[in-house]
Design brief:
This protein is α/β, with parallel strands linked by helices. Helix content is 39%, strand content 16%. β1, α1 and β2 form a beta-alpha-beta unit. α3 runs parallel beside α5 and α9 runs parallel beside α11.
Amino acid sequence: MSLVGKKGVDISSFNGDVSIEKIKNAGYDFVMIRCGYGGDLQVQDDTQFENNVRKCEAAGVPWGAYLYSYALSTEDAESEARHVIRLLKGKRPTLPIALDMEDGDGYKQKHGGMTFENIDNVCRVFIREIRKAGYYPMLYTGLEEIENYISPEVLDSVDLWFAQWWKRPDYKGDNMGMWQYGGETNYLESNSIPGVGVIDKDKCYRDYPSIIKNGGYNGWKKSDKVLDAEGYTYKQKDLGILALKELLMIAKKLKITTQGMDENGTFGDGTLIAVNQVLKRGGYEQNGVAGENFMKYLAKLIKEKI
């Protein structure tokens, strides 16, 4: 099952010993789990992380992880990345690994960390270290941080988990992979789940299990034979991906897109961005899906240029 357009939740120890089965039965198809906060100290591990991972695995619910940042320097950011990597050892999440970059309790502001230089560099370093360790990084943040503290270069380098409790997301970038649309306040539906209580709710715009497994991220091997939503193994799709990438490279030369391609034979980040650029051009939902209708539309755009 693709996660594109599906709803999920994000949880931490603040939710207590939460029932993943009740979340799943209520129609929420994925979970982002807080693994901890701050630098690499065991005392800063989320006390429910291991329990929540175990319950998601038992229920067959895709999960990813996030860490709340308290970093005041790039050294702190490196420690926070080590914190996440330590807790993920031996696990294979199928959703991204996110840095929660906000200042909900005012710590960074109080200690001089809420500056453009610090926030931008912390995000840059964390993303780099998580990617270097083989995980699929993501940045959780809101409009204030995007507009005042994070450079376009850093923002465009990673998928965004956009936080805005509203009826629709104001962020329109191609890299929005998830949207947290409600928590204590929810303008779209109830802020709670029966038997679970008040909980943060999210919408997914990309089929992360397919992207992550196919790309060999988060402990998955590219040779792992994982079936996608249509029942194909990724090995069976290799030739199709190569053909798609050839068409997208032609599209770039014709200035239909601006995105270069990944230097590999998989549907990686660059390919995903290029696909979404074509979808945006046609006014379609930017869901990263390159199906039959997409290929026909891309071929039409190319033919119009040559």
